[in-house]
What we know:
Blueprint: H1 2-22, H2 26-51, H3 56-86, H4 91-111, H5 113-120, H6 127-130, H7 145-148, H8 158-188, H9 197-210, H10 220-231, H11 238-246, H12 254-272
Pfam families: RteC (PF09357)
Protein name: Tetracycline regulation of excision, RteC
Organism: Sphingobacterium siyangense
Amino acid sequence: MNIYYSKTLQELDAAINEIEIEVDHSIQRLETIIDLILKCLNKVKDYVLKRGFKNFDEEVRFFKYQKPAIVSKLVYYNAIYKIETRKPYGLKRIRKFYTKELKKLKRFFDNNLDFYKYYRSNNSFFDEKFFVRGEHDIRLWLDTFYFEADHQFSTSHDYKVAKIIANDLIQVYLEGKLNYINHKKSLNASLNWTTSKTALTELIYALYSHGVFNNGNTDIKLIAKAFEGAFNIELGDFYHTFTELKARKINRTKFLDSLCEALNKKMEEQDDK
C-alpha cells in the first residue's frame, strides 16, 4: 500500500505542477486540476476496494494520513475555484469578500477545536473510532457529511482531516490575496490624477475602443472603476463627459494628442543627449 500510494501521490503532484506552469487562464487551470484529482481519487478507491488492508495499522494510516493528503487537494482547489468564480469587482468589495471567507475558516476551526487538538497533537487513542471503517461514534465530533459518504471508502473523520489540511492552505491563499490588495492600495494612495476628469475620460474611452483589456471583452464601467480606484478620483457621469468630447468642433482628442506630443518631445530630448 505504501509503495502504491507514494507513487500515486508523486505522479499527482507532478501533474498538478505541470498544469500550474503551462495553463495560464486561472479558472481553466483550476477546472483541469480538479478533474485530475478526481480521477486520481477514483483510481485509489478502486485499488483500495479491490485490495483491502492487511491489518488495523495499515487501514488507520491510509484514512488518517494518505487519503486526506489527496482529498485535501480536491477540497483546496475546489474552494479556490468557488472563491475566484464568485469574487466581486472592486478592491474594496474583494477585500470584504476575502475577509468573509477567512471568517468561515475560523468558524470551522472553532467548531472543531477538540479534533484539531487531537489531530495536531498526533494522538492515537481514538484512531479506532476515527479512522477505521464502520466504527464511528456519533458522540465524537461527527459531521452529517459522513452519513452521506461511501462507507466502504470513508471513515467518520478522514474528510475532516482533509478539511484541516486544505483550510490551512486556503488561509495562506486568502491572506496572500489580502496582502496584495493592501500593498496595491498603498501604492495607489501615492498616485493621484492631477489633470482634468475630461482628460482621463478621453484616455479611458481610447483604451476601451482599442480593446486593450481582456481582449476587448470588458465593460467601459469596469475600466472606469479601475481607473478611479487606481488614481483616487471620482469620474462621476463619464458617459456625459464623453458626449461633450464628441460634441467638440475642433480637436476631439486633445488630451491624447498632447500625450503623443509630450512623448515625442521626451524621445527627441533623449536622442540629443
